[in-house]
Design a protein that fits this description.
This protein is mainly alpha-helical and 183 residues long. It has seven helices and two strands. It has a two-stranded antiparallel sheet with strand order 1-2. The longest helix has 34 residues, at 95-128. The radius of gyration is 20 Å and the shape is elongated.
């Protein structure tokens, strides 16, 4: 019997790539969490009426919805870099597998930066218009992090057999996202 795809195991990925991918993904999750909170803070700046040279943060109040959204989004952004590191081991024995790994690596980084360009454009739109993510969009806001996670998981699924691992990864991403959403 010909095995078309190898199993998704630590030994197949490589212990160094697997654990360094987890550490790098967690590190980027913390960095993105901080940056997204900082961007939310910048979006709420206004000039003080008493002294126009100072910035006023009286209206800054971040809701639990935004904290959860930032936490889940930052974990999904970090998972992109985890995917990149996990697929960095190239086996020169199977040429078709190497091409798929290179394709997956390039597309994992391409999709995150495309989403960042989308978020920058969306942030510019929100500055000009008084729209609230929580009131106007609701749970639709979670579609971007879900899309990023599922896209990266699809890239891994094209190379490895990963049927049951998604049942472990999804609760882990939700738990880490909730931990990052704490004040």
């Amino acid at each position: 019997m010909i095995i078309f795809k190898p199993s998704f195991t630590i030994n197949e990925i490589g212990k160094k790539q697997f654990y360094s991918g987890l550490i790098i993904g967690l590190g980027y999750s913390i960095i993105f969490n901080y940056l997204l909170r900082l961007i939310t803070l910048f979006a709420n700046f206004s000039l003080s009426r008493k002294n126009p040279y100072f910035i006023n943060l009286e209206n800054y109040d971040i809701s639990q919805f935004m904290l959860n959204l930032i936490g889940i989004s930052s974990v999904c952004f970090g998972f992109t870099f985890t995917t990149y590191v996990w697929l960095s081991k190239l086996n020169f024995g199977n040429k078709k597998l190497n091409i798929r790994k290179r394709y997956a690596q390039a597309n994992s980084l391409f999709i995150i930066f495309t989403c960042f360009l989308f978020l920058i454009r969306l942030w510019n739109f929100f500055i000009q218009n008084p729209i609230s993510l929580e009131k106007d969009f609701g749970l639709y806001c979670y579609l971007l992090p879900i899309f990023i996670f599922l896209y990266n998981w699809n890239l891994i699924n094209r190379i490895y057999k990963v049927q049951k691992m998604i049942l472990v990864i999804v609760p882990l991403i939700i738990i880490i996202g909730k931990l990052l959403s704490l004040n």
